[in-house]
């Protein structure tokens, strides 16, 4: 497993006193302002780091003293080289993104924002008839859209399942994502606005002048803590903790407290400083579980010694690994259970692969992706970080979703994330994705509503009760699987936790939570034969269908394998005990 390989590599680098310094490869002229993320020496003096930064010509813009990370601005081309001489600093990297949440904007085909394959496959998907015998047993106990929530039925997170025993009351779940629409009627009752934070500032354009977040919605370019201009974070929060209120859906833990720990831009990119700040904030403020449904960019995989990368890029990736691991360690040590999406690249993380997508966010003008071989020594953050539960995605039939990354020793758990091709005719069906809350203002902006407020696309569903209407959208991805597992982790904290006398609510050991999730997960064997063929009938522009096949090899045992890890999370077993 990469997470353990890289722990050894980082430790070895620390022993040798290696200083990682990354500069841009563009043609930045002298005097042009640039930003770097600086990593202080572990256990060293912040004052010494400040002095070294100032001596090198830098100014601290933002600092996380808990783990020793700072964002620095400088006009000196010599800043990285000058910093190299100080023992107070062990890493310098260009200030750039470390993660990316899939873009969910289904209505806008010509958007310049990045959309991964899992979300792109929702475009044009038809809506089949969603049926469920389990959902029809007792409709009086269910939310209005429960019949569309095959995902909750798969893990036993239903009115007759986990809700009878545990609903997560008093447990705080942090949504490290693009924001949360705290005004959504199926979220607001569980949303803690006072405890929520936004660690980001909107970025209109990138180094090439390409739109990133677009024009700022607020004069400060800092969005309120109850706003989500992407939709991804709101969907995640709803999956975990939408309440039982006779409107729309119910989440896995319908009485949990939602805390927005926004680290993602409107466009879905995640920068290093906001991400580590969100994790340390979670540790300091009594957050019990965090969900991280994003994956690494601009480097999909971070490598410390890949010969395909020039030294400055190796340095940059090594610094990202160290800084993120410090933040993960800090949160874990402060009682935070860490759950992350496995990724949507349809690749085996335990094998050598080829990546042609990185770096996909230009930190300097003209920077572009290039092709490189990725050995197994490279690491994806945060899913391969120590203490993190990596979650793969299942479809309605419980097969591993066609897009989900996997690997024997990489996958920890699995959970429903949707698979629109998991159908009898192998054609896309939107109802085989995951339904959860959607900010109304985004549905309006994206042209998905009729003048009377009803949806004009099968990807959006409306639910009303006593004159109050909420909107919900179908998404698929490991980004949707991870929140299901995080929700079950919330139930575990509710069951195992004791009163938190410092922060209020409950607190449970992350190790105990992990043990309960793994021990109660439903074992799922590899398919027979283990080399599984996915067949998709992909609709073409001329109305014909193209047959696309891919093969994924499942390795391991029934109890633990590369498709399902220790199994599909089981909310009812966790809640009932």
Automatic annotation (TrEMBL):
Keywords: Hydrolase, Protease, Serine protease, Signal. Residues 168-524 form the Peptidase S8/S53 domain. InterPro entries: Peptidase_S8/S53_dom, Peptidase_S8/S53_dom_sf, Peptidase_S8_Asp-AS, Peptidase_S8_His-AS, Peptidase_S8_Ser-AS, Peptidase_S8_subtilisin-like, Peptidase_S8_subtilisin-rel. The keyword Protease applies. GO terms for biological process: proteolysis. Residues 127-148 are annotated as: Disordered. Residues 1-22 form the signal peptide. Residues 134-143 have a biased composition (Basic and acidic residues). The active site is at residues 177, 232, 479. GO terms for molecular function: serine-type endopeptidase activity. Belongs to the peptidase S8 family. This is Peptidase S8.
């Amino acid at each position: 497993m990469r997470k353990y390989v890289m722990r050894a590599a980082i430790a070895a680098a620390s022993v040798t006193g290696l200083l990682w310094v990354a500069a841009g490869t563009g043609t930045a002229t002298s005097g042009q302002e640039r930003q770097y993320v600086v990593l202080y020496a572990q256990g060293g003096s912040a004052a010494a780091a400040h002095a070294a930064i100032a001596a090198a010509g830098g100014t601290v813009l933002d600092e996380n003293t808990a783990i020793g990370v700072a964002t620095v601005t400088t006009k000196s081309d010599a800043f990285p080289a000058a910093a190299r001489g100080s023992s107070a600093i062990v890493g310098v990297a260009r200030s750039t993104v470390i993660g990316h949440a899939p873009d969910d904007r289904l209505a806008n085909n010509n958007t310049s924002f990045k959309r991964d394959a899992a979300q792109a496959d929702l475009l044009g998907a038809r809506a089949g008839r969603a049926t469920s015998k389990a959902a029809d047993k007792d409709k009086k106990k269910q939310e209005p859209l429960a019949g569309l929530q095959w995902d909750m039925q798969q893990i036993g997170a239903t009115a007759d399942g986990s809700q009878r025993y545990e609903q997560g009351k008093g447990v705080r779940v942090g949504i490290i994502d693009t924001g949360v629409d705290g005004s959504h009627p199926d979220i607001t009752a569980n949303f803690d606005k006072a405890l929520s934070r936004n660690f980001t500032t909107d970025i209109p354009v990138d180094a090439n002048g390409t739109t990133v977040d677009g024009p700022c919605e607020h004069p400060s370019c800092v969005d309120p803590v109850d706003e989500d201009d992407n939709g991804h974070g709101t969907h995640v929060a709803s999956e975990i903790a939408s309440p039982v209120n006779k409107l729309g859906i119910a989440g896995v833990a319908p009485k949990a407290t939602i805390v927005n720990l926004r680290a993602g831009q409107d466009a879905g990119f995640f920068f290093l400083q906001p991400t580590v700040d969100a994790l340390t904030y979670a540790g300091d403020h009594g957050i019990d579980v965090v969900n991280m449904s994003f994956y690494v960019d601009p480097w999909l995989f971070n490598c410390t010694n890949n010969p395909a990368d020039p030294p400055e890029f190796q340095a940059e990736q090594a610094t990202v690994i160290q800084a993120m691991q410090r933040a993960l360690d800090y949160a874990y040590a402060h009682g935070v259970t860490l759950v992350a999406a496995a990724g949507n690249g349809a690749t085996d993380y335990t094998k050598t692969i080829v990546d042609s997508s990185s770096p996909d966010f230009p930190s300097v003008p003209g920077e572009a992706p290039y092709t490189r071989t990725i050995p197994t020594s490279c690491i994806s953050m945060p899913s391969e970080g120590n203490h993190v539960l990596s979650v793969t995605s299942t479809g309605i039939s419980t097969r591993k979703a066609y897009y989900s990354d996997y690997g024997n020793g990489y996958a920890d758990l699995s959970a429903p994330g949707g698979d629109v091709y998991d159908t009898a005719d192998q054609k896309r069906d939107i109802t085989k994705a995951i339904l959860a809350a959607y900010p109304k203002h985004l549905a309006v902006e994206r042209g998905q509503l009729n003048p009377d407020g009803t949806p004009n696309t099968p990807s959006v569903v409306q639910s009303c009760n006593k004159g109050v209407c909420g909107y919900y959208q179908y998404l698929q991805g490991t980004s949707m699987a991870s929140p299901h597992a995080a929700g079950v982790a919330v139930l575990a904290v509710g069951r195992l936790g004791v009163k938190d006398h410092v922060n209020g609510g409950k607190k449970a050991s992350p190790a105990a939570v992990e043990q309960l999730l793994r021990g109660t997960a439903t074992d799922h064997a590899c398919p027979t034969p283990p080399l599984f063929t996915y067949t998709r009938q992909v609709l073409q522009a001329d109305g014909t269908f193209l047959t696309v096949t891919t093969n994924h090899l499942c390795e391991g045992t029934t109890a633990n394998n590369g498709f399902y890890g220790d199994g599909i999370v089981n909310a009812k077993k966790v809640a009932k005990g």
